[in-house]
Structure formats: C-alpha cells, structure tokens
Amino acid sequence: MHGILVFDLRAYSAKDASLTLVSGKVGLKDNLTGERLKVAPDEQAVWSKDNGFDLSTVDTYPLTQWKDGYFYFNNEPMVKIMQELGRWYNVNVVFEEQSDMNIKLHFVAERNQTIEKILEGISALDVVKVEYKDNTITVK
Predict the structure, then answer these.
(1) Regarding beta strands 136-139 and 92-95, do their DSSP bridges make them parallel or antiparallel, or are they unpaired?
(2) CATH classification of 69-139, choosing from 2.30.30.140, 3.55.50.30, 3.60.21.10, 3.90.1150.10?
C-alpha cells in the first residue's frame, strides 16, 4: 500500500512556481536545465526561471488548514494576506500606506465566509483599517 500524496502547488506566474509537500514523495525536473530534485515531506521547492530550484524546510501546518477550509496566516505580512484574499475572492487590493504591507498578523478564518466577514475579523484586530467597496479592498 502506498502513502497518500498531499501537496500544494502554486504557479501564479510563468517566472516562478513552488511545490510544498505535506506527505508522500515527489520528484521534479527542470525542463530548461535537466536539473532533478527529490522533495520530501515538510519541504518546499521553489523554481524560478533565473535560478532553477531552491529547496527548504517549511511548516506545512498552514497547508493542512487550507485543505480543511481555513485561511491560516501565522505572523505573515499584510501584503501576503491581502494577496491570498484578493485571489480567493477575485477582488483588487490597494494599500494607502506602503508601510502597512509589512505589518505581520496571526489570522485564521473560514474560507466559506463572505469577504465582508473576513475583513471585519481583520479590522477587529485593531492593527489596520480595511474597507471593501466596488470590488476593492483598501488597507488604510
């Protein structure tokens, strides 16, 4: 009997992609250079057009939360949180103050909630003010 393969694959850009492995085994090959890489559980392989593969050990707990229907951000910058919310809800994100992009939060929410409810939860943390209007999240 073989183990279950659980992974997260992200390729939002043609220039870079990442694969994070929770369980199982995965082999990768860079078709440009022929470089091969074996990825083990709790490892993340990041591929970029300029640098090839970079392998590192990561905490896969956030991925298991994602699989179970939650947004889970542990000490993540606002820019990353807003990027994920923007992709999930297909909305635009605007930061009025660029410095707010670097504010780090611990934030958990169910992915089946409305964007308004999610943003209400972020606002309740009293770190930044967020507004949602005309398909755009504005961080103030």
Answers:
(1) parallel
(2) 3.55.50.30
